[in-house]
Amino acid sequence: MKYVDALTDISVADIKVDLMRTAYDNEDALLNSFDPRVVLLWTVLFMIIPWLFYDTLPLAILLAAAFVLAALSQVSKYLLALLLFGQVTNVGFFVVLVPLIGGAVQAVGYLGDNAGRVVAGVMAGDASVFAETGSIVVAAVGRGIHTATTSQEVGIDAVGALVPFFLKLTIISVISLAVFSAMSPQKLSKGMLRLGVPRQLTFAIAYGYRMMPLLVEEYHALINSFRLRSKVPEKQGLFRWRYFYYLLTLSVKAFYPLIFNVAKRSRVTVEAMETKGFSRSLGDEQSQALRTEGMMVRTRDVTFVFGSLLFVAAVWVFT
Amino acid sequence: MVTTSSNSSSAFSFDHRDMMAFILVMSLHGLQSMITELLPEFSIGGLGVSIGPFWFVAMSVVLLFRSFWACLAIPVGGIVFGEILIGDFSALGAVEGLIVVTLSWFFVMSLITDPKNVKQIAALGFLAKAMEETAAWFIDVGKFYIGVEELEAISWLPETVWATEGIGALLQIIIAGVVFGAIPTLFLYPRLRGKIEPLLGMSPLEGRDGPMFTRTSLKRLIAWVALIPVAFAFETLSETSGGLITFTPEFVETYGQAFLFVPIAIAAVISFGLVAYRQRKVDGLQD
After folding, report:
1. Which residues, in sequence order, are bridge partners of residue B44?
2. Which residues of A touch B23 (CB under 8 A)?
3. Residue A229 pLDDT exceeds 80
């Protein structure tokens, strides 16, 4: 499946398969073979490192490296496309919207400056005031348009200044995408537990991983059953809005039975956990040790961290 | 003030019922955030108009309970399902959501006087969403002041950023707070109240007399105001962590850039040696 195809032809089933792969298929991902604590530490380190660079070239090299890492971690293509699209629209925001709103702000400011004169004229009962009002409005609009058009350049300049900024953000997003797609939930929560994150939270992560496919499946089944029992609107309407509205109401309604199902499920979960002594084991040192035994930093972890650091240093020196 | 919720102790106590409410809210809100996260959004020049998020889910479920944990479950669900599972996780940036969302809802929870009154619940849900977005608006604008240094250089740029972010926040309040928030809540909440609690082995919340705004509310509002700067600090750290650090150690200037390899190499050799030694010891024990 190529990236272009991933964009043009997306179905719910594809997205579901992609999600499942992202969450569960990480047996042979590179990052999953390291000690989770080391990987977490490494991630924090590499969330800071991009900020130390200010030029486009080294940042582009780092981004390429991040993409290689993402490819090794089997990152979902759909998510990657979504992420990149978001970054591109951020840049678009500066080119299009900032000058427009800037122009509007200028115009309103000009009107406000001159409103006082108009009010004074109206008080005096001056007839020429209306002509003046007209001219003021025209001037304000003119100024607004002027700002909007000339600052297009400013906007583009701003983009030039912002390219490194967005590159940094993209690098960080791609890296975190790679790390959290690649790490299996058990390893992630064990690593966090060992680093002192409270167990209620690591439990939430593990539970989320376990429940996600069930919940998605259930929600999808509910929507399908609603679709079977309802009728698609006869007229599609402009841009098929009726059809989309119908789908939207379905997806809202489908949450109602889902809420009850999840309530029952959460009760069963908690009861099962309490039967196994979840609350009692919370503050217990021994249980902690039992849960995180078998974790050890090995030489390959060290090689990984310092290898990537040396790579960054090389980029720093040779660009 | 006497709370008449299922547990008559404070809002912070944690027992198995709170755990159930926590898991319930977390799963539901997490699922909706994951689904709406994956739906493509139509963006008009950077203003994202997306379907959802379906805030009615959290609105109609959270206000059925009266505990801090139900509020905390909203951002946790969003983070676990919408970020960690998808892999789009910003560790420090998540703290902003944790603080702002939890406190907004926790404050609004204290204003409920009549849980049977659907209009009151929907209005309060909307208020919580509005508080959240307002806080997020201030934080986002503050980020621009710190992250983009040339902001002051262009005379009208700061106002523009204020206006643009404000419009974005307003759109969110209307879309997430009203269209996908308060309006579906009006239909959903009365159909849930009194049916869900027995499933979790609780009794529904009772109303209370007196004014909406009590001393508890005041305390929580003060906490909300006091902690926004903290949330801002975390968010700024996550977005511009190194922008605040200008990193040029002195030895780089003295010995040239290639010297940068030396400290890294030394650290590498030392830690490699230590780990290898420990590994051999442990493996030796196992043999």
Report:
1. B47
2. 207, 266, 269-270
3. yes
3-state per-residue secondary structure call for B244-283: HCCCCCHHHHHHCHHHHHHHHHHHHHHHHHHHHHHHHHHH
Q: Which runs of consecutive H residues, i.e. helices, occur in chain A?
A: 3-8, 12-24, 36-48, 56-72, 77-92, 98-124, 128-182, 185-194, 199-229, 241-253, 255-275, 278-281, 285-291, 299-318
The shortest C-alpha distance from B209 to chain A (Å) reads 30
Find the closest chain B residue to A307 by CA distance: B268
Q: How is A219-287 classified by DSSP, letter by letter?
A: HHHHHHHHHHHS---S---GGGHHHHHHHHHHHHHTHHHHHHHHHHHHHHHHHHHHHTTHHHHTT-HHH
> φ, ψ for residue A29 (rounded to 5)?
-75, 145
Instruction: Tell me B206's DSSP state.
Output: P
CB interface of A with B, residues 107-146, below 8 Å: none
Residue type at B141 in one-letter notation: V
Q: Which chain A residues are within 8 Å of B48, Cβ to Cβ?
A: 89
Q: Which of B85, B144, B180 to mutate to test the interface with A (most CBs of A within 10 A)?
A: B85
> What residue type is assigned to position A23 of the chain?
A
A56-69 confidence digits (pLDDT tens): 888 889 989 988 88
Residues 6+ apart with CB under 8 A from B168: B47, B48, B137, B140
Q: Collapsing DSSP states into helix, strand and coil, what is residue A26?
A: coil
Chain B stretch 135-154, residues whose beta carbon is closer than 8 A to a beta carbon of chain A: 147-148, 150, 154
The pLDDT confidence band at residue A8, using thresholds 50, 70 and 90, is: very low
Contact B86, B30 (CB under 8 A): no
- Number of CB atoms found within 10 A of residue A109's CB: 15
The Cα–Cα gap between A25 and B145 comes to 42
- Number of Cβ atoms within 10 Å of the Cβ of B262: 12
Interface of B with A in 103-142 (CB under 8 A): none
Residue A102: list chain B partners with CB under 8 A: 156-157, 159-160
Q: Which residues in chain A touch residue B258, judged by CB atoms under 8 angstroms apart?
A: 317
- Using a CB-CB cut-off of 8 Å, the residues of chain A touching B261 are 310, 313, 317
Condensed to tens digits (0 to 9), the pLDDT of residues B164-198 reads 788 888 988 988 889 888 999 999 999 999 899 99
Q: Residues near B265 by Cβ (< 8 Å), separated by ≥ 6?
A: A310
**Alpha carbon distance A186, A169 (integer Å):** 28
| A51-55, A161-165, A252-256: range with highest mean pLDDT | A252-256
